[in-house]
Specification:
2 domains; Arylsulfatase, C-terminal domain; single chain; 511 residues; Alkaline Phosphatase, subunit A
């Protein structure tokens, strides 16, 4: 892929920065989809799925062909987004159960804290998966610490994932609709006496599990973890998209007269895929495809709301995904059988849980109507870099100690330059690899080639080198042809990951 490099003098960038600070501060929205692959949106050329609202952000903004999450799973990539730090530096930043404590320190400087200090109203809506409370959570009382303690003025969230208990909405630290006479109990160790599970009462299921996901049943769907009580507070899966769209619209309307920062965590197309009946049959790919169509509708509703409020031309929108795609992630919902010719990886290799490129190489668009000109950029950018870049945009530059792994790539994000970061460490369940320029080096790891989802994990017996500019599908290991490049990348990798790289990493058991 040809590199077009635009050179900027230091003085020109300084003048541009001053001009931006004199402008009125833009509203900022970060939309993070869940398990959406590089090939799952039609903006990247897929002809098997239609995502017009998401495509608009890419086709009318900057569409990055080398946009990355830090990690191939949810919790760590979200940790990086909020903190500007590589998640593998925090051993707690791994896939969390639904009752995990908050893994971001209340004392830590975070993206929402920075935005709040810059005079922004801050809100978080949708999927969270960063932990809540301090351990042994009592869901019948205000849950703290949580989103507010790391910088969000308003929040309405699901604690973890839609396949994990507790299956309730938590708004500003309080479970929504809870009946005090029917308290919630949650355990990830043992069931509560008399409570049905997928193993004891399979006749209650309307969705079958394939691996894990055989514990408490909510809405006829088996989940991970055990839950009792809170019947009136439990969500209905098919209504989740509408519920969160309503909360997004409410936040936008309430803060239309002041600058705001909104984190919108879409739950689609994570399992269990239970789109509203309006979207059933919207694609030929079953519930997974229909859930993507529903996610596209959510983006369209948000855009329409911004337009109706007169905010669209003063709102910067980032759209991306927390990690790569997965088809069979614990339920028999036809995702594999109904895939057809659709390639959720977009020609890349691997997917969720994988150290191969499709694990972290994700959709990445930046849109700002009238401010950003449509462009396709091959700059290497990461969600990690949003912290430092947005800090510059809103006039709160970092001091070098804060968000220490985040790089200021604002010119690239605004389409003013195609210069991105030089290198990136990516992570998949504790395993690390390095991308530098068009090269990806996978260190050796023990373990199986694939997991229960069928996704390749990237466990290679020796150092493996790929030129992803020439070979995006990573079909050919060229390490033996470029020993000098292997040695240089090994040296850089060990320098950046000193004390963190382990050749033997315990395989995470999928639940």
């Amino acid at each position: 892929m040809q590199k077009n490099i635009i050179l900027y003098s230091a003085s020109a960038l300084a003048l541009a920065g001053c001009a931006r600070q004199q402008e009125s501060k833009p509203n900022i929205i970060v939309i993070l989809a869940d398990d959406l692959g590089y090939g799952d949106v039609s903006a990247y050329g897929s002809t098997t799925i239609h995502t017009p609202n998401i495509d608009r952000l890419g086709n009318e903004g900057v569409k990055f062909t080398n946009g990355y999450a830090t990690s191939a799973t949810s919790t760590p990539s979200r940790y990086a987004l909020m903190t500007g730090m590589y998640p593998w530096k925090n051993e707690q930043a791994k896939i969390l159960p639904g009752d995990a404590p908050l893994i971001i320190s209340e004392a830590q400087y975070t993206l929402p804290k920075m935005m709040r200090a810059a005079g922004y109203a801050t809100g978080a809506v949708g999927k969270w998966h960063l932990g809540m409370g301090a351990g042994q959570v009592d869901w019948n009382r205000p849950v703290t610490p949580g989103a507010r303690e790391i910088g969000f003025d308003y929040s309405c969230l699901i604690a973890a994932t839609n396949d994990r208990v507790p299956t309730v909405y938590v708004e500003n630290g309080q479970v929504v609709g809870l009946d005090p006479a029917d308290p919630i109990q949650v355990s990830y160790e043992h069931n509560f006496e008399g409570e049905p599970t997928a193993l004891t009462h399979p006749g209650l299921l309307r969705m079958q599990w394939s691996h894990g996901h055989n514990q408490s049943i909510v809405n006829g769907i088996p989940r991970i973890g055990y839950m009792k009580g809170g019947e009136k507070a439990r969500w209905k899966d098919e209504d989740m998209a509408d519920y969160f769209v309503g909360k997004v619209k409410g936040f936008l309307s309430e803060n239309k007269d002041r600058p705001f920062f909104l984190y919108y965590g879409l739950h689609q197309p994570h399992v269990p895929r239970a789109p509203h009946e309006r979207f059933v049959g919207a694609t030929s790919m079953g519930p997974r495809g229909d859930a993507i169509a529903e996610a596209d509708w959510c983006v369209g509703e948000m855009m329409a709301c911004l337009d109706s409020l007169g905010l669209l031309e003063n709102t910067l929108i980032v759209f991306t995904s927390d990690n790569g795609p997965v088809l069979n992630d614990g339920y028999r919902d036809g995702a594999v059988e109904m895939q057809g010719n659709h390639d959720p990886r977009g020609g890349l290799r691997g997917g969720k849980y994988s150290l191969f490129d499709a694990g972290t190489h994700v959709p990445f668009f930046v849109y700002w109507k009238g401010r950003i000109q449509p462009a396709v950029s091959d700059a290497l950018v990461c969600q990690l870099d949003l912290f430092a870049s947005l800090a510059t945009l809103v006039g709160r530059p970092l001091d070098g100690k804060e968000a220490c792994d985040s790089q200021d790539l604002l010119p690239a994000l605004l389409g003013e330059s195609t210069r991105g970061r030089d290198e990136l460490i990516v992570e998949a369940q504790g395993k690390l690899a390095i991308r530098k320029g068009g090269w990806i080096l996978l260190p050796p790891y023990g373990g199986p080639a694939t997991n229960l989802t069928g996704n390749e994990l990237g466990n290679m017996p020796d150092f493996t080198l790929y030129n992803v500019d020439a070979d995006p599908a990573q079909t050919t290991d060229v390490a033996s042809q470029h020993p000098d490049i292997v040695d240089a990348l090994k040296s850089r990798f060990f320098t950046l990951t000193q004390g963190y790289y382990k050749a033997e990493v315990e395989e995470v058991e999928l639940q």
